[in-house]
# Entry
Amino acid sequence: MNITVDNIKQTMKRYFGYEDFRKGQKEIILELMKGNDVLGILPTGTGKSLCYQLPAFLLEGVTVVVSPLISLMIDQVKQLKMKGIKKVTYINSLMNPEERKRVIRHLSHYKMIYCSPEMLQNRYFIERLRELNVSLFVVDEAHCISQWGYEFRTDYLRLKHVLAWLEHPVVLALSATATPEVQKDIMEQLNRPQMLKKIYPMDRENIVLTVEHYRKQNDKLNRIAELLRRFPVPAMIYFSSKKWCEHAAARLQEELSDLSIVYYHGGMDKEDRLYIQQQFMNDQVDVVCCTSAFGMGIDKDNIRLVIHFHIPANVESYIQEAGRAGRDGEASVSLIQYTPSDEDIPLHLISDELPDEKQIESAAMMLSENYGKPIEESFELHMMETLQLNDIQWGFIKYQFECYGLISENRITLKKSDWKAVCPDIWDFMSTRMKQKQRKLNELLSYLEVEECRRKRLYKSFQNDFKEPLYHCCDRCGFTFDQWNPPVRTKVIKKYTWEQKLKEIFHQGE
Amino acid sequence: MLKTVILDGVARLEGERSPSAIYHILTGKRSAQTIQDSKLFHLHQYFGVLPKLRQYSFKNQLSDLIKGNDVVVEGDDMFLTDVGRKKLADQLNRHTYLSALNGFLYHESGREFWLRLILFIQAASNILKDEHHFFPVVEDPKIIRWVKRFYADHRSELSAMFNEIYDEMKVFLQELDEYQADIIVSRFSGYHHYGKSKEQIANNKNMNTEDVELYTQSAVHFILREIDKTPSAYPWLKQFVPERRAEGLLTHSARETWKLLSQEKKSIEEIIRVRRLKKGTIQDHIVEIAFADSEFDISPFMGKDDEKQILHLLQTVPTRRLKYIKNQLPEHLSYFQIRLVMARYHHLVSRKEEMASP
# Structure
């Protein structure tokens, strides 16, 4: 295809209103237009999505975007529609069947289709996609392949079959954080060893890194209250449990009545989550106490402070979450709070994600007794209940069995005699996964304890060097909060009667 | 408040039904049994007002009431204690807004009305400030399509219309008490302003999200009733009311049966053959239809004397337990016939009530 940088720029201006490319965008788009597969690693907040949204309009045919979270695809589609780009849609398993059918029936009307990896296992949907010309296949947040694919989102590992079905469209895998190890895994799992790597440094020169140690959990909350009193800035505080989220939000709100503090986690109503997210983006809310469910797709540029009340599970998650601070380039701080034995929580989460050997063995036996039968939902539920498996663990077992041909086309093809042959392999794989995760956690723990410059250590496994920090570097290099002077927006909290609120919304008496 | 509603449910169903009957009414379960229960025991105002109520939230509330010695549950039976009865009377007096609920009539149209309204207010408030980029607070594509259409139809008069909607809205809100009006307005979004979520309001006001929903629903049902009474007084807001159909409350399957029965004039036996269903199922449908449609003619299913005899008994016995009633009647009268007369009787009573109320 004969397309010049000028053509691309024109289209960009017309659809998105941007004059110039940001770092990495031009390079990635040009490769895609030439028909090359690309693995793009760009730090959060640098306009990753434009890398496929723009080609989607330049290329003939349809672009399919695989997105890990439903809220994320809804956001993206809404934002595109807000820009006046209408030929986009999303489709996922939570939509009501009527709407879903409507979208699938009109599939050919769209230039871009967002969907979940699970949806791509839906026969009807994939058949309809096959009838269209899918020219670009995008895996957004591609590290999910590696991070989630093996346990609970095993459909991520089935994407390679989807690609074959769709007759091998051009592939773009995008992520904000992927170590060389994860990069390799992504390429292998997509079965695209020849992907061009476009890796951009992920260090953020305006984010200060700091870690504090305390004795008790309560000390952490007191410290947060103290910091927010001193720096009433837009902030996110990460917790690893819903309960803590709610508890902390209530306590902090009680102490800091001048700020608006809310919580956000995956257990909330869809509608409630949407409101909170929009209030935060709109600066109506100052502080969000959240779990990792909050964040992907949050495009707020003035977050000044990201606190980890509980430690993240690995360095990649940490870089992603901390990277939500200071997208506007202003001096921002990332603080990790640590009390002794905090690592127990992520350790526990890790072991919860994998079944134990006995459970796998019993599962194999139960399946072999039902040789030849299809796997129905009621059977799965019965199995999970009898063997005390959660859905993540069962997903893992099922996928492993599929890999070894013990389940095929959702029918049990496992004989007792086969099991003996494969079980050592599966157990090996499991202990490898477990060790991998523990190693990742240890990597983070050792980051907390590091004596030298934190920047140096944090980005070590991703890139060779990093940019000179713009304001301050890290606590190890001498940063204390006394040196921080973030812009503070003085806000008057208005206590309105309902009549006044109504007038304001309806623009009365102006 | 949800607790008050549950207490009211227990009071009306005591000795007759188990607690799950209340749950099904609140969530608006589309079953013949639930639709009939809500009518028979005068709980139709609560029908479907909390479609998303979780089983465990309901159980938690109920067990609070049991612990507080307001309610006693024994096996499938439940009763109100004297303490509970006093509490109920007291709370119904305090939460008068509950009396505006009319779930049976408005639970579906009310929800749609509300979503159309909040999305339109958000859109108009933004567009009038020349802000065309806002994040819609309603995701339902059906609602979005409606609002877009409505906007397109009135684009040229948007500003004037918005002012008039303000006036119409204000009239309603002034009729509510301050507390409830505040909840409703807090939920509105507009130009550079996102409303409070249910959970936020619940936390601020120290109540459950279900309570917030009850306050909202009751305000909406109140508005809908007023619009129904004098549509000409609300030229704009009446356009937000979705069309209602009488068969709205029927289960899908019963709707099919209704079509065959009323439009194609088929007999029960013919319907059984066409639909390949059991006789009992078709009879269930017919009873359901009789409850939903106050004009439904039951005379093809029994003689006038039989009807009179059952009606007489219904007027005298204090229970709605079918088995008991059946035992009091001659052998030849079937459960099916008794249930049909119950439906008739129900409509007669409610008509009387309507005449008695102002």
